[in-house]
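Hi team, as promised in this morning's meeting, here are the two structures we talked about. I've kept the exact order from the run log so nobody has to guess. The first one is mostly here for context; it's the second one we should focus on when we meet again. Sequence first, then the predicted structure tokens.
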Amino acid sequence: MYAAAEDDAERARIRTVLYAPPRGERGGRRRAAAAPAGAAGASTAALLAQLAAEDEQVSGMRQGSR
């Protein structure tokens, strides 16, 4: 496709079209509102507790196989 371009400007236009997001996804993108600080802390604490429980489970498996 780039070989058909006659100059750098046309190559840039081709590149823009090739790498553009699909038409349905263009525009209308806005950042989601940030979660309240309390909610983020609670979900983080729950995730860390789950991670610690899984870590304990895996450590127990490793020690049991020795």
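And here is the second protein, the one for discussion:
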Amino acid sequence: MKFIINFASIGLAKVMANVVLIGATGFVGPAVLNELISRGHKVTAVVRNATKLPNFSPAGEFDERGERTGKFRLGKDDLIIDPVTNSSHISVQDYAVAMVDELEKPAHHKERFTIGY
């Protein structure tokens, strides 16, 4: 026995969704946003004001297993080199600390900065 349901006959021909669209003003975002809206979806667009954001550049290498030390240096445009190891590196945990520090107390308005040991 087969059951064939005609969704159009019961008002479910078009399933609507609540969508959070991240990057709605980016390269592809506007086209995706318009397509979602044209199909009747409820869209919450998440955008950023790029003119207010700093450009946070990581060190040359991420140490995924490194510890959170809270001891690192911040710089501007130049890669930060650890004088002991002669390399540019940072743990993922310390990168996260610096990123959240910048979000809570912005110190690099519209400028690039970098991190390293």
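Starting points for discussion:
The mean pLDDT is 81.
Residues 92-104 form the longest helix (13 residues).
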